[in-house]
Amino acid sequence: VTTEHHNEMTFDNEPNISLAFVIKSPAFWIMSLCFSMGIMVEMMAFVHQVVYATNINIEKIAAASSLGLVGVGSIFGRFFFGWLCDVFKDPKYSVSLGLLTMAAGMLILLNVSSVITLYIYSLVFGFGYGSIAPTIPILVSDRFGRRILGSIFGLVIFFATGIGGGSGPIIGGLIYDTFGSYIFAWQFSLAVLLVASVLILTIKPRK
């Protein structure tokens, strides 16, 4: 049997489900919420971390360069957490670990006092954030199959990046304007990530 024919046979065995069924599924809404929470925190930090760093007397160029390190960390995170999805029986554990890694980075950000600790935060947080890109399609296909993977993936991305990512910078700005400090924004982000890392584990396996 050729590889192409084998793939076609495997695809034929995928469940034939409708998008309406997916939208009614708790698993879809849980994963959409958790990924939205993760990207909300990422975008909040991405927009506000430079201002926060300069507010605590870190030099502007060093503060700005920390954004690049978030990207560097995410590159390695994509490979690692994608590989981890192959190791774990259920990809939801890889998602949870990625969110916990982001939470660890946020905890470091709360205690940043120098350029070195800012850079450590950026690498750790970026590494955890890198988990989101590979785990979304893997978790979606694991729970709902591949027949309408494109449609489901598009909906999850709509909620995660459109709503979650769009609201993150706004929420961070509102918290800063209200309390005059980013500390409360980072504490809020830490709590959100911890909740998401536990909530994603409640997704039941596909029947």
Order of helices and strands: HHHHHHHHH
Give the end-to-end Cα distance, rounded to a whole number of Å.
28 Å
Residue-averaged pLDDT: 91
Structural class: mainly alpha
So what's the overall shape? elongated
Number of strands: 0
What characterizes the major β-sheet? none
Computed Rg: 19 Å
* Low-confidence region ranges: 1-9
**Share in β-strands:** under 5%
In DSSP terms (H or I, runs of 4 or more residues), the helix count works out at 9
Helix percentage range? over 70%
Concise summary:
The protein is mainly α. It contains nine helices and no strands. It has helices at residues 3-12, 19-23, 26-55, 60-87, 92-110, 115-129, 132-144, 149-179, 183-199.
Overview of this protein structure:
The protein is mostly helical. The two termini are 28 Å apart.
Features:
207 residues, mainly alpha, 0% strand, elongated, disordered N terminus
Task: Set down the secondary structure blueprint.
Elements: H1 3-12, H2 19-23, H3 26-55, H4 60-87, H5 92-110, H6 115-129, H7 132-144, H8 149-179, H9 183-199
Helix pairs in contact: 3-4, 3-7, 3-8, 3-9, 4-5, 4-6, 4-7, 5-6, 5-7, 5-9, 7-8, 8-9
